[in-house]
From TrEMBL, chain A:
Pfam families per UniProt: ABC2_membrane
Bilayer topology: Multi-pass membrane protein
Residue intervals passing through the bilayer: 34-55, 75-96, 117-143, 149-172, 184-203, 247-265
Protein name: Transport permease protein
Subcellular location: Cell membrane
Superkingdom, natural source: Bacteria
Species of provenance: Ornithinibacillus xuwenensis
InterPro entries (alphabetical): ABC2_TM, ABC2_TM_bact-type
Family: Belongs to the ABC-2 integral membrane protein family.
Keywords annotated in UniProt: Cell membrane, Membrane, Transmembrane, Transmembrane helix, Transport
UniProt domain ABC transmembrane type-2: residue ranges: 35-267
Broad class of the protein's primary localization: membrane
Automatic annotation (TrEMBL), chain B:
Family matches, as PROSITE patterns: ABC_TRANSPORTER_1 (PS00211), ABC_TRANSPORTER_2 (PS50893)
Protein name: Teichoic acids export ABC transporter ATP-binding subunit TagH
Keyword Nucleotide-binding assigned: yes
Matches recorded under InterPro entries: AAA+_ATPase (IPR003593), ABC_transporter-like_ATP-bd (IPR003439), ABC_transporter-like_CS (IPR017871), ABC_transpr_TagH-like (IPR015860), Bact_Polysacc_Export_ATP-bd (IPR050683), P-loop_NTPase (IPR027417)
GO molecular function: ATP binding
Protein family per UniProt: Belongs to the ABC transporter superfamily.
Residue span, ABC transporter domain: 22-243
Highest taxon in the source lineage: Bacteria
Keyword Disulfide bond recorded: no
Source organism: Ornithinibacillus xuwenensis
Length: 275, 268
């Protein structure tokens, strides 16, 4: 509990630093490419195209039913709405996990609050996410889904995603500094998670078993992605309508965060010994 | 006089593992695996404010470990280190980001040291001028020579004006002109009454610059005193070691390591 407060305080006190460092992070990552920052958009765009081609063909380009009251929506919009959140979650979790051990050599030379390292790495992904989200809103406009009041919940779901990713990164960055294999393990787990989340295919449409459906909903990404879609299609206030699910999600985040903060504070003085 | 650094019973233990299996078992089981290695054993010393202390000793005697512990980079296994003020370490590999330009690195490093944007704007030209990088300042750091890198690292560290400066062999890569310039800068610091620690194998520089010498041998303090007292003894020691045969040297080492073990057990 105490370590959770310490970590939270460090985030708030060094918010300026997090913002500035995240910009440098983004610059240094793309400096050696000729196309520079453009790769951050080209990369997901290529992925979306191939998924659209494969999974769209599998379902013979039929429309997706997102709500009982609505006409089925085109598959491509359904795909990008989920994918934009997925790519943010995936990139920031992966980068967050290796954030500490890959930067420790440079950062340990100064007295620096370690807990902001995963956070500024996550933040640098956030800029890209805003950019992609902007694109996707344009796509939605052309497809006939206009800006609506439910867009406001995008802010809530984005914040929820940040909290989840930060809590996970606190745990994985500590563990993967001590045991490098954890990062590899995370990598393969995440690849699996892509298929266990409602991003590429609609789980209800294929698995006709309410139990498995509930089981898959334990995945917090399910909540976030469905929330995003609710906002973009203007279906309902997802986090109020599914309030039990909201409670579950936040309980999970709090538990992960408490565990991650305790782990981080316990080991951070000794990180350098594990290099 | 005010104390700048107080180190009490500082011990640093590293584990030597034969393979990754041992490392993993040591991590997850309560039983201890692997061989203990003491980089520092029961080191005690105090530095007054304004002291200039040189660390000497043969390779592997724990000089760098001790300076890293004082700078707060490496945690000590046992004992306490009290440092009054901000300590800044300058080493050859002084944590610069290869992909970023020299200018970006200056900004980044100052940012992490807790300077505001305005302060950085003020410091930046001074650092660039001191580092003498000229056209290279906007090139990525990975294209720098090792001398340029250490010049940049040194320039940043001295311009941000720390209370305690620890210099770990950083001057040995620069050319003579830059070494002279750095020494002048350090003399300036000396006049300002700053505490400095100097790790080097160059006894000439030590003689010229330091006031006190801490002599480390296999992680233990062999001697601590003024330059005139300690340096002649160290020179004598080096000469004698050279004369010894391999067997005698091994015996000497055995004896010292035994003493080290006793010391460590004494404080545990």
């Amino acid at each position: 509990m105490k370590s959770a407060l310490t970590v939270l305080k460090e985030q708030i006190n060094h918010f300026y630093l997090i913002r500035r460092l995240s910009v440098y992070e983004l610059i240094s990552k793309n400096k050696s490419n000729y196309l520079g920052m453009a790769w951050e958009v080209i990369n997901p765009a290529i992925q979306i195209l191939i998924y659209w081609f494969v999974f769209g063909n599998i379902r013979e380009n039929s429309a997706v039913e997102v709500s009982k009251e609505m006409e089925p929506v085109p598959f491509i919009t359904w795909l990008v709405a989920g994918f934009v959140l997925w790519i943010f979650f995936y990139q920031s979790t992966i980068q967050g996990s290796k954030s500490i051990y890959s930067r420790l050599r440079m950062l340990s030379k100064m007295n620096f609050p370690m807990s902001i390292i995963p956070n500024y790495v996550i933040f640098s992904q956030l800029y890209i996410h805003f950019f992609l989200l902007f694109f996707i809103i344009i796509i939605f406009h052309f497809s006939g889904f206009y800006i609506n009041i439910y867009y406001l919940q995008l802010i809530y779901f984005l914040f929820a995603t940040l909290c989840l990713v930060f809590a996970i990164s606190l745990i994985t960055s500590t563990l993967s500094t001590i045991i490098r294999d954890i990062h590899m393990f995370l990598n393969s787990t995440l690849r699996m998670l892509l298929y266990l989340s409602p991003i590429l295919w609609q789980i209800e449409s294929i698995v006709d078993n309410p139990f498995i459906d509930k089981l898959l909903m334990l995945n917090p990404l399910y909540y976030l992605i469905e929330g995003y879609r609710s906002a973009l299609y203007g279906i309902d206030w997802y986090f109020i309508v599914h309030w039990e699910y909201t409670l579950y999600f936040w309980a999970l985040v709090v538990v992960l965060f408490l565990f991650g903060a305790a782990l981080h504070v316990k080991f951070r003085r000794h990180f350098i010994d594990y290099l | 006089m005010e104390k700048a650094i107080i180190a009490k019973n500082v011990t640093k233990k590293y584990k030597l593992y034969k393979n990754t299996k041992e490392r993993l078992l040591d991590l997850i089981t309560p039983k201890s695996y692997g061989e203990d290695f003491y980089a520092l054993a029961d080191v005690n010393f105090e530095a007054e404010k304004g002291d200039i202390i040189g660390f000497i000793g043969i390779n592997g005697s724990g000089k760098s470990t001790l300076s890293n512990i004082i700078a707060g980079i490496v945690p000590e296994t046992a004992g306490t280190v009290k440092v009054n003020g901000q300590a800044s370490l300058i080493a050859v590999s002084s944590g610069l980001k290869g992909d970023l330009s020299g200018r970006d690195n200056i900004e980044l490093k100052c940012l992490m040291l807790g300077f505001s944007r305005d302060e950085i704007k003020e410091l930046e030209p001074k650092i660039i001028e001191f580092a003498e990088l000229e056209r290279f300042i906007d090139q990525p750091v990975k294209s720098y020579s090792s001398g340029m890198k250490s010049r940049l690292g040194f320039a940043i560290s001295v311009t941000v004006d720390p209370d305690i400066l620890i210099i770990d062999e950083a001057l040995s890569v620069g050319d003579k002109a830059f070494a002279e310039k750095s020494l002048n800068k350090m003399k300036e610091f000396k006049e300002k009454g700053k505490t400095m620690i100097f790790v080097s194998h160059s006894l000439g520089q030590m003689k010229e610059f330091c006031e006190k010498i801490l002599w480390l041998e296999y992680g233990m303090v062999k001697d601590f005193g003024s330059v005139d007292q300690v340096l002649p003894k160290y020179e004598e020691y080096l000469r004698e070691q050279k004369k010894l045969s391999k067997k005698e040297r091994d015996e000497y080492r055995e004896a010292i390591l035994k003493k080290q073990l006793q010391l460590v057990q004494g404080i545990n």
